[in-house]
Amino acid sequence: MIFCKECGEALNLFETHDEDVCYSCLRLRLEPAKPPVPPPPAAAGNLFPPGATLSREQGSLVLRSPEGWVLWSGPDSERHSLEAILSRAQRIDAIRRKRKR
Question: What residues are paired with 53 via a beta bridge?
């Protein structure tokens, strides 16, 4: 009985092999290398505690933590970048958590 040099699996007796390598190892050799998958972008849940809420209060948008802290606020008549809102909210949340300890 002949075994694959790479994985040790028994080779099919009725196949012709130029090398002592099984079909699955040969197929892996011939497949092009796949590029690494980039990590997924950070989700909003990873930036600050889950349960934070965005609401409209008296003409302004307010982002509050589950504890009731105001993490960000701005006028609702202007456009705001979500990245800017989340980065500022994350900084404020980190500062408040340090003070809480």
Answer: 64
- 80 & 54 share domain: yes
Whether 31 contacts 23, CB under 8 Å: no
- Domain identity same for 59 and 95: yes
Residue with tokens 């701005």: 74
Asked if 47 and 90 touch (Cβ cutoff 8 Å), the reply is yes
CB 61 within 8 A of CB 80: yes
DSSP 3: B
Lowest mean pLDDT across 26-35, 64-73, 88-97: 26-35
- Reported as half-sphere exposure (CB side, CA atoms, 13 A), residue 45 has a value of 2
Q: Residue 59: give the domain boundaries.
A: 46-100
Distance separating alpha carbons of residues 50 and 33, to the nearest angstrom = 38
Q: Do 51 and 90 share a domain, yes or no?
A: yes
The strand pair at 53-57 and 60-64 is best described as antiparallel
Q: Identify which has the larger pLDDT, 78 or 40.
A: 78
